[in-house]
Specification:
Largest sheet: 5 strands, antiparallel
Distance between the termini: 49 Å
Radius of gyration: 21 Å
CATH architecture of the domain at 179-286 and 338-356: Alpha-Beta Complex
Length: 374
């Protein structure tokens, strides 16, 4: 990584980033140490705080009214609801790409992240006519939900107005919600697992993906873990995609048995191990999207990174204060994710091999993604 990720304009002014938001000024690094592209050296991002009880924001051809714009959502940083709007505007192309045409669960925090969280599947009545939805069914309960289906940035900003902080899309799209086009590798550290272990396992994941001929797109989780997404050919249902994900996880475990576990029950896992959470590929199981803010006091962001950055970026480096400037300089590092899709047939062969050898999936799920019989 040569040079700065953010440039100062002539005269010491900061040049505007995406969405007209100025990227942060560049601070000093630490001698003798590679600085993180999302770390403290990236500076601070502080849009102005609104004082009015409501304000209007222009988003493309839409106008979205933002109520309580100066409500503090993130107590550790003082960032407000309007700051959150400005963040999503700054990374607009990235968040729309991550959510496009997918059913999306909203994690809402009506009083900010210090208050209660609401998991909302259904778009409420009274939504603007330009908001798009997709209907998903839950056979176990005989219910359905019309979930948000993003096709433009104004729909994201509308959701923020509705107090959404996190966006959790399905790994399938509206054209056929029962056939995933995305395989998600969730590197989930147990309580005593170090981030050094996360990085080492990410290297094994990259190695196996390369051998398979699959392209992995890493991102920070916004927490203590790491996610890797793989576009797949949409020709299998959730059950087979999950079986493929489990077969892959077992292969990673075989190559790093001292670091990795695929044990289903949390109580049975080594607290210092990293769990490769294949169950994130089950139906109606969702993860924070690329560029989604997380509901933590420090306003961390699930941020696309390059494989070269895995050993550089720290878990808390990428926040709403630093990611807009990074996005303005680098663009969306997941911009090419749709360019190549991997066929999971070889992984299904691995799954059949493991099953013939007696491997048992303790977490077999029903049609709604819940443990069978649970």
């Amino acid at each position: 990584m040569a040079g700065s990720l953010w440039r100062d304009a002539p005269g010491g002014e900061r040049s505007p980033g995406a969405g007209g938001v100025a990227p942060p000024a560049v601070g000093g690094g630490h001698a003798g140490r590679r600085s993180s592209p999302c770390g403290p050296a990236a500076g601070r991002y502080r849009p102005g705080m609104a004082k009015a009880p409501a304000t209007e924001v222009r988003v493309g051809e839409r106008t979205v009214r933002i109520s309580n714009p100066d409500r503090v959502y993130f107590p550790a940083t003082g960032a407000t609801k309007l700051d959150l709007v400005a963040y999503y505007q700054a990374v607009g192309p990235g968040i729309v790409r991550a959510l496009r045409e997918r059913p999306c669960m909203l994690h809402r925090f009506p009083k900010g992240v210090s208050g209660d969280k609401v998991h909302q599947k259904r778009v409420p009545g009274g939504a603007p006519p330009w908001l798009e939805t997709v209907r998903v069914h839950f056979p176990r309960y005989g219910l359905h939900a019309d979930e948000l289906c993003v096709t433009e940035l104004a729909q994201v900003i509308w959701a923020v107005q509705m107090s959404t902080v996190e966006f959790h899309p399905w790994n399938s799209r509206r054209a056929d919600v029962e056939v995933p086009d995305e395989w998600r590798i969730d590197l989930d550290p147990m309580p005593e697992c170090s981030y050094a272990t996360v990085r080492r396992v990410a290297g094994v994941v990259h190695e196996v993906l390369d051998e398979l001929g699959a392209v992995g797109w890493p991102k920070t989780s916004g927490g203590r873990g790491l996610h890797v997404y793989v576009r797949i050919v949409p020709e299998h249902g959730f059950t087979d995609v999950r079986r493929a994900a489990l077969a892959f996880a077992r292969e990673v475990e075989r190559r790093a048995p001292e670091l990795v576990t695929t044990t289903w029950w949390r109580k049975d896992r080594d607290p210092a191990a990293l769990f490769v959470d294949y169950n994130q590929n089950a139906r109606d199981h969702t993860m924070a999207a690329a560029y989604s803010v997380r509901g933590f006091p420090t306003a961390t962001v699930s941020t696309p990174i390059s494989w070269d950055e895995v050993d550089v970026v720290e878990p808390g480096d990428c926040t709403t204060a630093t990611v807009p400037g990074r996005f303005a300089e680098l663009g969306d590092l997941h911009a090419g994710i749709d360019d190549a899709a991997y066929a999971i047939d070889e992984l299904l062969v691995w799954a059949e091999r493991d099953e013939r050898a007696g491997a048992v999936d303790a977490g077999v799920l029903d049609d709604d993604g819940a443990p069978d019989g649970g």
